[in-house]
Amino acid sequence: MNPITHMVISWNTAAVSPVEKRDRILITLGGMIPDIDGLSILADLVFPSGYGWFYYHKYHHYLAHNITAIIVWVLFVLLIAKRKVVTAFLSFIVFHLHLLCDIVGARGPRECDIWTIPYLSPFSSALTLSWKQQWELNGWQNFVITIIMFAIVFIISWKKGYSPLEIFSAKMDKLFVQTLRQRFTHYC
Ligand SMILES: [Zn+2]
After folding, report:
1. Integer Cα distance of 114 and 111 in angstroms
2. What pLDDT is stored for residue 144 in this prediction?
3. Ligand 1 centroid to 108 CA: how many Å?
4. Distance (Å, rounded) from C-alpha 52 to C-alpha 55?
5. For the chain, which ranges sit under pLDDT 50?
6. What is residue 132's predicted lDDT score, i.e. its pLDDT?
7. Cα of 102 to ligand 1 centre, how many Å?
8. CA–CA distance, 152 with 14 (Å, rounded to integer)
9. Ligand 1 centroid vs 3 CA: distance in angstroms?
10. Is residue 23 exposed (0-12), middle (13-18) or buried (19+ Cβ within 10 Å)?
11. What is the pTM of this model?
């Protein structure tokens, strides 16, 4: 799925958990970490190989979509989180939700373009996860999931008084929640 969908799924999970802002951000990032290997597309832009998106196809879903990446992230979370165990546990969960979402809905345009997840990479290639029914990245299923996740974002933001914008700017977050509450106060 696309990084925005992963972000809102992870933030929603963090937002309904008993953790404060910094830990919510760590959990949200935990659900986005796998796609850091998608930055390999920059290598294609800077060093074109002549074989299309060579580096992207070689390294995306390979470098950080694996158990090694989440172990490193969980260790980092244990160092800096306020509620260490809860935040590390939820980071682990949203990371795997990300992998699950990619397994079900990250296919390319052709039926055979199924993305696989080398779960034990880079130490072993023994466990490669995939699903034959994987739907297209641009499929309606991903669209529906994203809409539902954004609806939940609006409800949580309205109720709790913070939104995913807290990751980027406290000011923007406050303004968004204020606007949301003013807009919907009369109907609730
Ligand atoms: Zn991914």
Report:
1. 7
2. 97
3. 13
4. 9
5. 188
6. 92
7. 6
8. 12
9. 7
10. buried
11. 0.89
